[in-house]
Every structure is written in structure tokens, then in C-alpha cells.
Amino acid sequence: EDKVVQNPLSLVVHEGDTVTLNCSYEVVNFRSLLWYKQEKKAPTFLFMLTSSGIEKKSGRLSGILDKKDLFSILNITATQTRDSAVYLCAVEAQCSLVTCSLYSNSTAEALQL
């Protein structure tokens, strides 16, 4: 069975801390892993990771993928109150001619400042 799991489930940090969010997956026909930030309404896209070991950065956020061990991490440095949100990871599977599936995580990770 395909699954995506995040940990820890919730986190309380202080301003200025560095936070690491973990996402592990077991998905057949893996294509990419996506990170999102959800504050109040629809999630905001952060990163798409497709290559193992390649770090993507955007300001104080960085994400990396390890295809061998089937996990990804999202790092947030120098946390600020505006970072308070639910962070989600999702795995996209390879598409066939008929279907393409996005496997969302079974857990959502809340970061509270």
C-alpha cells in the first residue's frame, strides 16, 4: 500500500530557531515529492523535489530528497511568527496514459510559533 508519513505531527518552536520537518514515503512509481504550506485556505506550493541529493532553497526554506532511503526534509532557518502554519508533503506517482495520482500524506505537520 502506498503511503506518505510526516513527523513530528506538531511542533512548538521559538523565533529564531531552525526547524527540520520530515516526510517519508512508500510509493510505487515515484515521480516527485512536493512540499506545501497551509495557513488558512488553500495550501501554497513551496518545492518540487525530483532528484536525490539536490537541495532546493527559497529564502530561509530548503528542501532535500533522498530517493534511496525514501524520505525528504524541509528546513526552516531563523523561524519567524509568519512561519506558523501546517506544512504538507505529497508524493506524485508516475503517470500512465489514463491516470496520474498524487498521494497526500496521512498526517499534517503543524508548526506553531
From TrEMBL:
GO terms for molecular function: peptide antigen binding. GO terms for biological process: adaptive immune response. GO terms for cellular component: T cell receptor complex. Keywords: Adaptive immunity, Immunity, Immunoglobulin domain, Receptor, Signal, T cell receptor. InterPro entries: Ig-like_dom (IPR007110), Ig-like_dom_sf (IPR036179), Ig-like_fold (IPR013783), Ig_sub (IPR003599), Ig_V-set (IPR013106), TCR_variable_domain (IPR051006). Residues 2-99 form the Ig-like domain. Alpha-beta TR is a heterodimer composed of an alpha and beta chain; disulfide-linked. The alpha-beta TR is associated with the transmembrane signaling CD3 coreceptor proteins to form the TR-CD3 (TcR or TCR). The assembly of alpha-beta TR heterodimers with CD3 occurs in the endoplasmic reticulum where a single alpha-beta TR heterodimer associates with one CD3D-CD3E heterodimer, one CD3G-CD3E heterodimer and one CD247 homodimer forming a stable octameric structure. CD3D-CD3E and CD3G-CD3E heterodimers preferentially associate with TR alpha and TR beta chains, respectively. This is Ig-like domain-containing protein.
